[in-house]
Amino acid sequence: MKSTLLDFEKPIAELEEQIEQLLKQSENSRVDFTGEIRRMQEKLEKLRSEIYQNLSAWQRVQIARHPARPFFLDYVRFFCNDFIELHGDRLFGDDPSMPCGLATIGEFRCAIIGQQKGRDTKENILRNFGCPHPEGYRKALRVMKLAEKFSLPVVCFIDTPGAYPGIGAEERHIAEAIAVNIREMMVLKTPIVAVVIGEGGSGGALGIGVADRVLMLENAYYSVISPEGCAAILWKHRRHAPEAAEALKLDARSLLDLGIIDEIVPEPPGGAHKNPQFAAEKLYSSLLNALRTLTPHPIADILQKRYNKFRRIGIFSWEQNSTSPSPSQ
Q1: CA 101, CA 109: separation in Å to the nearest integer?
Q2: For residue 56, what is the enclosing H or E element?
Q3: Would the pTM count as exceeding 0.85?
Q4: Which of 58, 252, 254, 313 could form a disulfide with 242 if both were Cys (CB 3.0 to 4.6 A apart)?
Q5: Chain segment 239-281, per-residue pLDDT in tens
Q6: Domain 61-312: assigned CATH number
């Protein structure tokens, strides 16, 4: 795949190109440029550190959407053994944008569910650009119920810009399918771990996102609406997407501070696509820790904590003064 360069990475790419040209010149002319190359490499490392340690919310959204970023099935290949995919919702059909099945993660036999994008046009059409249909959510729920029956933990990988909003999806009740999943996951009698690995967009993400532990990769995002959609509504133009991204608090650090997620999984500098093996190892370790933390507890305790976790979301308070209206006003 051709490398996709993000706008804010251009200064890094330019400096890398200068170093490469200097190395070639050194080889061809037999002139020693070692000192100059070392200084440029030090400058490059400093520039990388400055850029990647101070990413804005919008820049993290761009990384989350990077076409080379590892997808759900990539992580399955990295650390899931004996993956057996299960197809169909037993009502309408199968949805390739929501692969589900059984696999082993470390010492745990699990039901795993994920949203899958494509690498090229052909695969994106097959996967519907990672936008699941109603049958995808119903298939996911069927696999969750199977996991509940056999006391298997459920692991969900979230990576979607949102559920598919087309006519066919509406005719087959996409909103109802997501709502049923949210309701049933809240009372599912088995541990659930969810991880946002890329885009976590709207109800499409929440349809497999009700979990006892919600993890999130460092450069993923999780939001009720895309920055572009928010900008179109509030600012009447998509060019305000960077401002919308900041206002939405959709990055991992903001969501951890708000109590929406439970853990940030670190990525290599520049994003998971820069070193997929590193990202997979970190995610594998976090998933194992989450599963080992949850599974020893009685299911009644797990359900009560799950309920309390989501009831706390959205609660806020403020200090009332003489000029502030009371809550009743």
Answers
A1: 11
A2: none
A3: yes
A4: 58
A5: 999 999 999 999 999 999 999 999 999 999 999 999 999 999 9
A6: 3.90.226.10
